Amino acid sequence: MPSDAGRTLWLEVAPYYDRSTYGIDGHLFGTGFTSEMEANLDEIELGNSSAPESWHTFSAHFQALHLEALDKKKLSPTPKQLAYFTQITQNLQEDEIAKFTSGQVPENMTGSEMRDVIDAIMTAHPVETQPASEKQISWIQSMAESAQLSEAEASELVDLTEFGELTGGRKGTASQLIEILQKKVKDLPRPPSEKQLNWIQKLVDKAELDESTACALVDASGYGDLQGGRDGTASKLITELKKRTAGSGKKQKSKKS
After folding, report:
1. What are the DSSP calls for 159-180, one per residue?
2. Model-level pTM greater than 0.70?
């Protein structure tokens, strides 16, 4: 499945590189362009086309498209600007928001206009007074769950009643709560990550050990008993297995040679 960043690139960025003004269907990152490039490479290989000429033709085409894309980008706010505008205005009254936007609909502004509006709002309402970001809230929820704290219990640690009251910025209450929760979950046992387990299994196979023999190296009975984190038994087992398999690849190579 595509990531959120991948979706944004394909749906929001790639269309800026539309080639219709050059009489070509689709945008630069579509399958049409890939086919064209493969055809050009085939012509170069067959000696029917010059490599430098093909390269310079592509460079000029791309540069023109890129400059046009930058101009198009300025015509409307970016998705990131609109999301941030929504975040920093959610606690403001409609009449105050209208003063900042001069009554304009955010989506109809230019990128420059939206940047100026955001700057004006942030000057009037510093980041420490703004709501916490979605990333901060998500992180807090995850750590609170690990610490077996309810939303009310976790919020009480910074004298609040719910996560919706948290403020953003480095000096906001969200950052304060994150710091408190990090200390609380630091020493809590947690399972090893999928990456750690995959790495351990590869090293175990390389060391020609079975699961129980390998886990016994850190006083565990099996992979299910391992603990995650930098100081957990999973990390210690990885270190021990790396020592045991160090140089094994070189030895095998020398035998082959």
Report:
1. T-SSGGG-B-STTSHHHHHHHH
2. no
Number of neighbours of residue 130 by Cβ within 10 angstroms: 21
Q: Each residue of 31-52: pLDDT tens digit?
A: 888 898 999 999 999 999 999 9
Distance from chain centroid for Cα 64:
30
Residue ranges of domains in the chain: 9-74, 79-125, 134-185, 194-247
Q: Which residue has the tokens 């480095």?
A: 170
Asked if residues 180 and 143 have their Cβ atoms less than 8 Å apart, the reply is: no
Q: How far is 42 from 79, CA to CA, in rounded Å?
A: 40
Count CB neighbours of 226 within 10 A.
Answer: 23
Any residues with CB less than 8 A from the CB of 162 and at least 6 apart, and which?
151, 152, 155
Which residues make Cβ contacts (< 8 Å) with residue 182, sequence separation at least 6?
A: 143
Q: 108 with 77: CB under 8 angstroms?
A: no
Q: Check if the beta carbon of residue 234 is closer than 8 Å to that of residue 195.
A: no
- Name residues of the chain where pLDDT drops below 50: 250-257
pLDDT in tens, 147-174: 889 999 999 999 999 998 999 888 889 9
CB 140 within 8 A of CB 168: no
- Is the separation of the CB atoms in 212 and 221 below 8 Å? yes
Contact criterion met (CB below 8 Å) for 10 and 2? yes
Distance CA 118, CA 130 (A): 12
